[in-house]
Each structure stands twice: as structure tokens, then as C-alpha cells.
Write a structure and sequence with these properties.
Shape of chain A: globular
Number of helices of chain A: 21
Low-confidence stretches of chain A: none
CATH architecture of the largest domain in chain A: Orthogonal Bundle
CATH class of the largest domain in chain A: Mainly Alpha
CATH topology of the largest domain in chain A: Butyryl-Coa Dehydrogenase, subunit A, domain 1
CATH superfamily of the largest domain in chain A: Acyl-CoA dehydrogenase/oxidase, N-terminal domain
Strand content of chain A: 5-15%
Radius of gyration of chain A: 24 Å
Oligomer: homodimer
Distance between the termini of chain A: 50 Å
């Protein structure tokens, strides 16, 4: 079954859950209107469903290939990329002064969701270009921006991020690529980078690499890293393409998933050095990278939502078609569709509810970025902190549930789920990278407990949980039978999150290792509870507006609250009582 | 890192946790001695580590291939299979009167664990032969047994199980393959079977298919299914190989994992019909299959344990080698091994603790089968029911944690986990089938709540939980600081399981759908709690014996009890309160 973008659910979540509605009304987003938002989401949804999704499988069975330094992407992808750029989709979020549409992050993240539901291997390339545009727009010189931004914004060229080296993954301080100053103000770059997404491909004439490297006199560690723009093909003064730079793709990784996406080993300076241009200041490269880190992490989070949605649609279609056994209450002839078996329904509902919660979390994160962009003064601080606080939740929780939903999708298919032609397995293989790249989910959890909980001395998380508690309260106050115990269960979950957060605050100063040992369950706890708040908010809004989908929203929020939120009491208990047990295990001890 | 069989842990679990020690002392297992058990486990472990495991990757990158009806297994597998049979390993559990060693199920399951840790794709073939031997030994005529059993026991020929058809997976009642009676007392078989593991291969000269089919006058549904022995090559009266039977491998599946294992579409009777011999009575084929179902399901459960163990060893070796960042308390030079980062350690400990719990559960299940075999009268009933009760736990929980441990293994590897050459991803791809085949885990959960809880009017599960509660009590009574709250946490978990089981008993008669909706979390609850009891039992036994590994066992049991058993309170809550929420979700409703 082909992917169909859930346009109505996306619009509803944007407007009634994640804050787009009020932001539009308050005029925070320029001349953007609800009609324009709908038009964009519908159009992007159509392109994702009709053009991107049909190439999903081709991108799996025909991996990108390297021959004589040339990378060939899967059949059909060149045309897809061309048409996608011509449709203006690459330019959606780019700065207006360089040809972009300057649309808010909320729309960018929605579009990314749909491209990634269509084909994560295809969509991950443009995601990197967006990151390069942001880094360059924020830190590049006027000359660099004038030369490179228009073509990166249009998609005529793509961008990459070159951070990782074999010995420097999560710990960028260990990186060794080196840069040498030249008399003309340029630099020469030497070294090897690995895991470079779309480091080489045949979609465009040029590729603009952003590369972290170290100057000869740089301090050790993360304070001695600089950021350089290193084009694959050197650009002449008149903007035309000149000589090939001294860089090459030395190999492609053979990966579990994302086969269509070329993951490159990049070699810089095999000869006299690759020509590079400094972005920002010397030794401040990591800071430049970090300015776009929130957004990049959110863009990975939405990949989790995207694959979860696609896997759910795929499994639901199968479960409605496939017949086995007789479900309780089945009065039809012969075998019943398996969707009617309670255990299968539970799995499908789990996929859908987790996807809805993670979607709301990601959109709310994008909303915070947009508000931070538009606001000033205290408001700007508030929204900047809100985005910072939610980012690790949006990245880690969404990518975890992406894997869970994809794995459930296989299970729902039974034996057919293990057969590659069915397509269910590809979702798991593709989704499995998202909890790893752009900061592993373990690192997100550490970021949450060590850097995000302390924001504004703990005010940021308190206000956030407080807002969501108000949603729980409203769900209770609405007092409708179809709401079941939504209000109570969400309120309980948020209390568990609060109690655990207080424990974190109290424990961090005296026992940092204890906090790190349970950071991952804490992140899950916060995310699950927040997701409950968002789904409750949506159910309340739909009910108050008397929408046709109000019963469905209440039922899904109820399933999430009564079935899935049970986990939060266990997580709180785990966070607050089990650090010692983690510490005392000795894995090296023979037994 | 190559797999090393955890011989000491296996022996300890067998003897001190799962009941082998007392059974040997009581002389329940014939002339088997602890020394012989050790010798067998050590020797099998050596073969698994030195001969099977090195071919793990070859079995992935060189899938079995079909050409002109001939299936070629991965390079090295023919020699491996030959040497494995020559070592007598195929004959381990076979009946003595047909050349087998007649060893108890406990040793069979231990050996299976090690072959599957070495290479699940290789080991799954012989598992099917064991099943065929059992079915034939229990239900075959003397003539069939005399002709086929000696060669199936030695491994000169292999066996298969042909159940599934495209429209008949979980619901075997829907199967359509047909059998026609012949004047000479044989039958002719017609039809297509799918998902036939090792249905065709080049390891042996003959393959003995056990095929479920329907006679022309058979009643509809599961009461009209008969079991037939259908050899690939017909066997002459003198035992020599004759003509090729009218059956062929029509295709191989392209699967997510287990690439080395040929999963065949089998076509019977394209011509005048495949010659088949009735096993057991007409229309009683499913009953014949069910006599070996417990054992077959246990053999799949142990695959979960096996892959979890292998994935853990693989991830631990990497985490001890790989250096990134500085863990809390690290005083060495430069970056610390990632195993010292609390979040990485938590993941490794989770793998190890879940593996240990599932191993104990599987061995205890095998023990019950052995005791049932040896016992008579009430004792036989007791042990038969015990085996029946634990089988769905052993199958579903172990295969679920196999997937979890393999996925954690990828996460521990970071970016390298997504690269196929690392080997971490293969464990996930291979493990993912185990929750599906031999009855999906959802079906195991349904079996548990509808057929196993009611055994002896609920006495079976009460006595089982009661035994484990005694272990919790002992862990508490031992009163040693390194035990932390093992006793309390395990007792709590068992109470949660009991409360939920009581709810199941009470609810099943009046609301079957409610029970089915939460059968899966209930199975997980029972299994997690039981695993806690087993690990506590082991920790107590090691402490009392003053063993060197006593501190390590206590620490691991403590981690399991204090960190992982938190989940049980949530599961109990989920079981007892969320069925309505599952029922009210309407997935077809647009929103």
C-alpha cells in the first residue's frame, strides 16, 4: 500500500496542539495564513505520496554505488530530486534573501516528515543541505553566502556535514583532520571523515562540504576545532565551476538500512590539500555547529515519526486485508480480518498512539524554535529554552518509537513481515539509524539531565510540565464518557515525571554517575508524559469544536493514557531507585 | 570477536537454577552424571565457538541460492554440517533404539543454544530434523520408523515441517493441500507450502518432509488435517535411494535475516502427485504435530537466548575496546572505554540480565519436559502441566528479549552498529523472525491466558509462582548487603503477576475479548517476574556455596530486580485496567 500523507492529522496537530493556531492569530509568523499552511501541507503531501513513496523500495534494492569515484544513486532518484527542487521544496525554509521561502520551522518539519515517510533514504540528503544552509547563513562571510547560499537554497547544489572520524564519534574533541593557513586567506584541508551522508552522489553538479578540522596551533579538545566550507568543485569568481578540489569519496558503507543514501568515507588532501574557506572564527567551529544542532536533532526526530507513520499505514492496510481465525464477536463468513483480533489491534493502536505523541512533541519543538525566532527579550529566552528542553525528547523519543513502530509493523505481518518484498522489514532497517546519528539517544538523555533540566534554575521544565498538567485538568473537566480516565492518567504521568525530575535535580550535584545511569529512562518518562498531555489537548480541542474526528481523537488519547502511560510509574521508580544497581554490576567479572 | 560459549554459566544455570542437580541426585535421568553433562557442554561449546561461529557471517553474505531446482548453501556449510553430524551432535536427543544418545531435553536445549549463538541460520535446520524425529517416533508406524529414523537421527537425512500455506498461517484450519488415497495404502499429495525451512538444500542426499494435508472426505477445519511423510527421494525396499518424488522447491524467500537458511516455497504434485505415507491416523495430523509443539516452541525460545548471548558478547567486546569521552571517575589517560559510561553499562547489563533470566526460563522448561518424561502418575501430570505452562513464556519472552538485546547491541556500537561488516546488525536481522515463527508471540500469549492458566483449575500457575516466591524469600533471608533489595523486588514482581493472573481468571469467563487484549503484557509480566525468581535462586545458591562468582551473580540479580522488575507494576496495571481502551480505539476512523 502506498503512503498517504495524513494531511488532516498533521494540520490538526499543528494548529490545535503544537501552537500554530495561536501563533498565526497573534501574527507571530508574518503573513502566513492557515489557508497557505493547508495548501503547502496538501501539496507536499501529494508530492510525498505520489512521487517520493513509489521510489522507496528502489532506494532499498538498488543501493547507491561507487565506481571510479562516481556515486550512482538508485534508479529514478535523479529525476525525483530534480522535480522536487523544481517544485521549490528544497527552498521551503531557506532565507528569503537567498531565494528561499523563509517559512517557519513548523512547516519545514512537517514537510520533512512527509518526505521521510515517503523515503527516509532520499529525504536524509536534503536534511543535510538545510543544516549547511543554516550554518552558513548564521556564520558565513558575505562573500561565502553570496556564492553558495542561492544554490544550496534552490537545491542546485547540496550540502554535507563532515564531523565524524574513526576515533572521533560522540567525542568530537578527538578529531584530527587538519587545516593549514594559506597566504591568500584560504586554507588547505587534510584528513579522513567517515559516515558522511550524501558525501558524493549524482544528483547535482556540486557538493558543498562543511568540514571540522584543527589548525596547527589550535588548543587540544573541542576548543581547537574550526569549521571550513570545502566545495567538491571549486567555484570561480564569476560563479562558474572550475577545477575538482582535492577531495574524494574513498568508499561507501554497506549499511543495515538507508541503502539509497550514500554514506561516504571522505578523503581530503590526498595531494596538495583541499581548498577550504573558514566559516566563522578559527577554533570556534563547534560553536558554529551547535547553533544548528537543535534544528538538526529535531529533523532526525521527525524521521522517527515519519517511519512510524509509514510503518503503521503499511501494517494497518495488511491487517485490514489479511484474514486468519475468527476474532471475538466476528459474525461474518469464514475468517475475520486480523485487525479485529484484540492483540493485533493493540499493536496497531500502539503504533498510532506513539506516532501521534511523538508528532506533537516534534511539532511543539518546531513551534518553540519559531517563537524564539520571532520573539525578543524575556520571551525569546523563554522560547529558546523551551526548544532546548524539548529537543532531546523530540530526537530520542521519536526515533525510539520509530524503531518500535517499525518492529511492531513486522510483527503484525506475521511471517510475511520477515520477507523483504513485503516492505515491513525495510522500515525497521531504515529506522534503526535514527536513535544513533546526530547524537545517540544516550547522549540526548545526558544532554537532558545535565544541561536542559538546569535551564533557568529548573524553571523551564517546571513551566513545561505545568502547561501539560493544565491539559490533563481540562481532559478531566470535560467530563465525557469517551474520555475514560485520560485526565487522571495524564496527570499521574506528569506527576511521575515531576517527581523524577526533582530527584534528578537533587542527585545531580552529589552523584553525577547516578544521574547518568538512569538518564535514558528519565528521558522516556518525560517524553511519554508530555505525549499524553499533547494527545489530551488534541482530544479536548476536537471535542470542544464538535469535530467529526473528536470520538477518534478521544479514543486514541484514552488508549495512550490508559494503556501506554502505565509505563511512567515504572520509569519513575526505575529512575529514583536503581542507579546503585547499575553501578554495582561488573560485566567483566567471570560467571 | 568470536562467540565463546558461556559454559560455566550454562552449567550453573542447569544445575543450581533449573533443576538438573536435584534430578541427577534423585537418579531421574538414568546414568547421566554431572561429569558427563560438563563434558558434553564443554565439547559442544568448543564446536559451536570454533566451528559454527566462524561461518556466521558467510551465512549472511552468501545466502542460500536456488538454481534449476538445486539449493546451494553458503560456502563451508556442507563441511560444517558433515563434521557436526560426525561429532554425533545431531543424534544428541534422538531415541537410543535408532542410534540416538537419548539425552534429556535439558542437554538438547543447551546444545541448541550454543549452535544458535554460533549461527542461527545454520542451527535452525537441525532443529527441524529434531522435530521430525519426535513426530515420527511418537506417531509413525514401525515400518516408517525403521526406514527413516536411523538416518534422521544420525543426520544423514534432514527433516522438515510443512504446515503453512499462503492462506493458512496462524490458522491451520484453512489449509488446502490435499491427499488422495492409493490402492497400495500410500497417498498422493498435491499443493503448495510456504516458509519451509530447509525445504531444499545440498547438505544431505535426502530430505524427509512432514506435510499436513487434507483427505477428500475430511471434515472442514482443524479436525480434517492429516500428517504425511513425503521423502524428496523415494526409498526402495532395500533402503537405497530410488526415484525423485513429485515435489520441488519452487522458490526461496528473500528474508530480513537468516540468509543462510533456505526458506522454501515447496510444490507437491505438479505431476501425478507426490508419494506420501500416513503418520498417525487420518484426520489426526494436527494432534501429531501438537505432541511435539511444546518442544519445538522451546527450541525457538532458546534461539532468542542464543542470539541475545551472542549479541551481548559482541557488544561487550566492542565497548571494552572502543574509547570515547571520559566516564565519571575515569582517571586513566585520554578517553575511557565506553563500557565505563553509565548509560552504556546499563545497556550491556540489560542485555546480560535479560539473557540470564530467559536462559533460566528455557532450561526450567526443558527440565519440566525431562521430569514429565521420567515421572508417572500425579508427578507426570504435574510436570507435564509445568512444561505446558512455561512453554509460552519460554518461547515468547526469550524471543522478545532476543530482539531487544540485539537492538541494544546495535545501539552500544553507535554508528558502527549500522554498518553490516560490524556484525551487530545481523543479530537483529536474524533474531527478528523468532517472535514470529512457531506460533507468533501474540498466539503464545493467547495460549497462556486461555489454555495454560486454567490448567488444574489454576493450580499450575499458583504452585509455580509459589515456588518462585520461596526464592524471593530466601534472597531476603540471606541478608547480605550485595543483595540489595533483590528479595523485596522479586516478591513484589511475583505479587504483581499473581494479582494480574487472578484478574485474568476472573475476567476470562465473562469477557474473553478483554483478556485477549492484554494477553501480551500479561505474558511479559509473568516471564519478567519468573526470571527474577530464577536469578535470585542462582544468586542465593552461589552465595551459599561460597563460589567465586557469587558477587557477580548477586550484582546481576540485583540489577535485574531493582532496575528491570520496575516494569512489572506497570504491566499489572496495564493488564487490569486498559482492555476497554484497546476495545474503544477505532483504527479505521479518519482523523
Amino acid at each position: 500500500m502506498p503512503y498517504r500523507a495524513p494531511v488532516e492529522d498533521i494540520l490538526f496537530t499543528l494548529e490545535h496542539v503544537a501552537g500554530l493556531g495561536p501563533a498565526l492569530e497573534a501574527g507571530k509568523l508574518g503573513d502566513l495564513s492557515a489557508d497557505l499552511v493547508r495548501a503547502i501541507v496538501e501539496e507536499a503531501g501529494r508530492f510525498a505520496g505520489e512521487r517520493v513513496a513509489p521510489l522507496l523500495r528502489a532506494g532499498d534494492v538498488h543501493p547507491s554505488r561507487l565506481k571510479d569515484g562516481v556515486v550512482t544513486t538508485p534508479p529514478g532518484w535523479r529525476e525525483l530530486y530534480r522535480d522536487w527542487c523544481e517544485g521549490g521544496w528544497n527552498a521551503l525554509s531557506g532565507p528569503v534573501e537567498y531565494g528561499g521561502q523563509g517559512l517557519p520551522a513548523m512547516l519545514s518539519v512537517v514537510a520533512q516528515e512527509m518526505w521521510n515517510s515517503g523515503s527516509m533514504a532520499f529525504a536524509v540528503g536534503p536534511t543535510l543541505t538545510i543544516g549547511a544552509v543554516e550554518a552558513l547563513a548564521a556564520h558565513g562571510s558575505e562573500a561565502l553566502k553570496a556564492t553558495y547560499l542561492p544554490k544550496l537554497v534552490s537545491g542546485e547544489w547540496t550540502g554535507t556535514m563532515n564531523l565524524t572520524e574513526p576515533q572521533a564519534g560522540s567525542d568530537l574533541g578527538a578529531l584530527k583532520a587538519r587545516a593549514e593557513r594559506q597566504a591568500d586567506g584560504t586554507y588547505r584541508i587534510f584528513g579522513q571523515k567517515i559516515f558522511i551522508t550524501y558525501g558524493e552522489h549524482d544528483l547535482t553538479d556540486n557538493i558543498i562540504h562543511l568540514v571540522l578540522a584543527r589548525l596547527p596551533d589550535a588548543p587540544a579538545g573541542t576548543r581547537g576545532i574550526s569549521l571550513f566550507l570545502v566545495p567538491k568543485i571549486l567555484v570561480e569568481a564569476d560563479g562558474s565551476l572550475g577545477a575538482h578540489n582535492d577531495l574524494r569519496c574513498a568508499g561507501l558503507e554497506h549499511k543495515l538500512g538507508l541503502h539509497g543514501s550514500p554514506t561516504c568515507v571522505m578523503s581530503y588532501g590526498d595531494g596538495e590539500g583541499a581548498v577550504g574557506y573558514l566559516v566563522g572564527q578559527e577554533n570556534r567551529g563547534l560553536a558554529c555547529m551547535f547553533t544548528m544542532m537543535n534544528n538538526a536533532r529535531l529533523m532526525i526526530g521527525i524521521q522517527g515519526v515519519a517511519v512510524a507513520e509509514a510503518a503503521h499505514q503499511h501494517a494497518l492496510a495488511y491487517a485490514q486485508e489479511r484474514r486468519q481465525g475468527r476474532a471475538p464477536g466476528w459474525t461474518g463468513e469464514g475468517m475475520s480480518p486480523i485487525v479485529l483480533h484484540p492483540d493485533v489491534k493493540r499493536m496497531l493502536a500502539t503504533q498510532k498512539a506513539l506516532t501521534g505523541a511523538a508528532r506533537a512533541l516534534c511539532y511543539a519543538c518546531a513551534h518553540a524554535l519559531d517563537m524564539a525566532h520571532a520573539a525578543e527579550g524575556d520571551d525569546k529566552v523563554f522560547w529558546t529554552e523551551r526548544a532546548s528542553l524539548i529537543t532531546p525528547l523530540a530526537k530520542a523519543f521519536s526515533t525510539d518509537i520509530g524503531v518500535e513502530a517499525a518492529s511492531l509493523g513486522i510483527q503484525i505481518h506475521g511471517g510475511m513481515g520477515f520477507i523483504e518484498e513485503t516492505g515491513a522489514a525495510q522500515f525497521l532497517r531504515d529506522a534503526r539509524i535514527a536513535p544513533i546519528y546526530e547524537g545517540t539517544n544516550g547522549i540526548q538523555a545526558i544532554d537532558l539531565v545535565t544541561r536542559k533540566l538546569p535551564l533557568s534554575s529548573g524553571r523551564a521544565w517546571r513551566v513545561y510540565l505545568g502547561e501539560l498538567s493544565a491539559d490533563a485538568h481540562e481532559a478531566r473537566a470535560i467530563n465525557r464518557p469517551e474520555f475514560g480516565r485520560i485526565g487522571e492518567a495524564v496527570a499521574d504521568a506528569l506527576r511521575h515525571a515531576e517527581t523524577a525530575a526533582l530527584w534528578m535535580e537533587e542527585t545531580a550535584p552529589r552523584d553525577p554517575a547516578a544521574v547518568l545511569a538512569v538518564a535514558t529512562p528519565f528521558l522516556r518518562l518525560m517524553s511519554l508524559a508530555a505525549g499524553g498531555g499533547y494527545l489530551a489537548r488534541g482530544a479536548v480541542a476536537a471535542a470542544k469544536a464538535g469535530r467529526d474526528d473528536a470520538p477518534a481523537r478521544a479514543a486514541l488519547a484514552r488508549f495512550y493514557a490508559e494503556h501506554l502511560l502505565c509505563e511512567t510509574s515504572a520509569l519513575a521508580h526505575q529512575v529514583m531507585t536503581s542507579s546503585d544497581a547499575v553501578a554495582t554490576v561488573d560485566l567483566a567479572l567471570a560467571m
